[in-house]
Automatic annotation (TrEMBL):
Taxonomic path: Bacteria, Pseudomonadati, Bacteroidota, Cytophagia, Cytophagales
Needed co-factor(s): FAD
Organism field: Hymenobacter glacieicola
Keywords of this entry: FAD, Flavoprotein, Isomerase
Name this protein carries in UniProt: UDP-galactopyranose mutase
Keyword Nuclease assigned: no
Keyword hit for Protease: no
Transmembrane segments: none
Domain UDP-galactopyranose mutase C-terminal: 147-343
């Protein structure tokens, strides 16, 4: 009998497994339909021995001391401040737009004060800011919007920024100084030995059993448990009762090049050219030394693994219908990016999971009831219950 069945071994599922097992002495079964732990943050050494992120670059940054300290129990860190260049008008310029971006693009030598005035002169009046287009043209005007945002967003989301909620482009600041860091959070670092190693440490506990290559549908009726924590897509949990929630997907094309370095920055964005949105060079993120280098191209797609909930009003309304069902489902807790249909970063998901842990453990024990029939699984199912032994990997 497990106290918890956790669906999904990404940040949301693994943080809860770790807390429940180590702090509350709960027996936890965590399943993932993929062949690995760590969800979208999964990294591994490729055939050339270079550490790569299978699902695209994951850069850790947070303002939360609690989240950083929590994760520090499972990893040391490599200080890393992320930088991005955008290929625009045949030049590579800093992104987010800053003083140097404007000076380089327009052949000017403005100072911070002058660039502020310059951007103000370009900005358009937008009475009510509703869409992603409104956010940008009201800050930097139409020309920079066209050069940096319009086509990138169309590629990334398959939609014009005027059709997308303001939250998408609000995430990207505009700076009038020369700060070229992509993020300004207090804590910016990469797990020293990678994300997967960090997750292995989180899940390395006798109370935690990990079952990979397993869709929870295949085991849910056979393995007894008291409560479920679900971190997969919420619409899938309810058999798409109200229809599919739209997600944007990506195809990752990984390549290893026979040269030590490739890009002028860890990530180069291509807003206007090519079918891919950006290229990442992993060694720049991980600090690994190697005579070759590995890169990844990202091609946005409509179909495929669900990566990005699409932020549009009608999708939020559809999600709210699923949320109501979720709230009414006893002993199942929905947490994480897919289960709450929110565009969360890793640190936000960790915070959400820690908050749920607190809520679960404040709940009186008596209220927890067995909700599944106690059917002992067949030998083949039970054989798949393989406790992970990181030492052997
Ligand atoms: C391309 C890309 C780049 C990103 N870059 C960053 C970044 O730089 N910084 C940052 O902070 N965040 C980044 N993120 C966001 C980050 O990936 C998420 O915040 C984080 O992975 C969410 O964790 P999660 O546990 O909610 O979901 P996930 O990591 O998606 O984990 C959910 C798990 O559930 C499993 N699952 C789903 N359905 C089932 C089922 N039926 N049965 C069994 N298992 C199931 C899935 O296989 C998956 O492993 C990025 C995301 C993407 C897609």
């Amino acid at each position: 009998m497990f106290d918890y069945l956790i669906v999904g071994a990404g940040f949301a599922g693994s943080v809860l497994a770790e807390r429940l097992a180590t702090r509350s002495n709960k027996k936890v079964l965590i399943v993932d339909k993929r062949s690995h732990i760590a969800g979208n943050a999964y990294d591994h050494y490729n055939e050339e021995g270079i550490l790569v992120h299978k699902y695209g670059p994951h850069i850790f940054h947070t303002n939360s001391k609690d989240v950083f300290e929590y994760l520090s129990n499972f990893t040391d860190w490599r200080p890393y401040e992320h930088r991005v260049l955008a290929s625009v008008d045949g030049q590579l310029v800093p992104m987010p737009i800053n003083l140097d971006t404007i000076n380089k693009l327009y052949g000017l030598s403005l100072n911070s004060f002058e660039v502020e005035q310059f951007l103000e002169s370009l900005a358009e009046q937008v009475p009510v800011i509703k869409t992603s287009e409104d956010v940008v043209v009201s800050k930097v005007g139409r020309e920079l919007y066209e050069k940096f945002f319009r086509n990138y967003t169309r590629k990334q989301w398959g939609m014009d920024p005027s059709e997308l909620d303001k939250s998408v482009t609000s995430r990207v600041p505009t700076r009038t100084n020369r700060d070229d860091r992509y993020f300004t959070d207090t804590y910016q670092a990469m797990p020293l030995h990678g994300y997967t190693r960090m997750f292995e440490r989180m899940l390395d506990h006798p109370n935690i059993k990990v079952m990979l290559n397993t869709d929870y549908h295949d085991i849910v009726d056979f393995i007894p448990f008291k409560e479920m924590i679900f971190t997969g897509p919420v619409d899938e949990y309810f058999d798409f009762k109200y229809g599919k929630l739209p997600y944007r997907s990506l195809e990752f094309k990984h390549e290893t090049l026979n040269q030590e370095n490739y890009l002028a920055a860890p990530v180069v964005n291509y807003p206007n050219d090519n079918l891919y949105t950006r290229i990442t060079e992993f060694k720049a993120l991980t600090g690994q030394k190697h005579p070759k280098t590995s890169i990844v191209y990202e091609y946005p797609k409509a179909e495929g693994d669900p990566y990005y909930p699409v932020p549009r009003l009608e999708n939020a309304e559809l999600y709210n219908k699923y949320k109501k069902l979720a709230d009414e489902t006893p002993n199942v807790h929905f947490v994480g990016r897919l289960a709450t249909y929110k565009y969360y970063n890793m640190d936000q998901v960790v915070a959400q999971a820690l908050t749920l842990y607190k809520k679960l453990t404040e709940k009186p024990e008596e209220a927890q009831k067995v909700v599944k029939p106690t059917i002992i699984g067949s030998a083949s199912i039970m054989e798949k219950l393989v406790p992970r032994d990181p030492a052997k990997e």
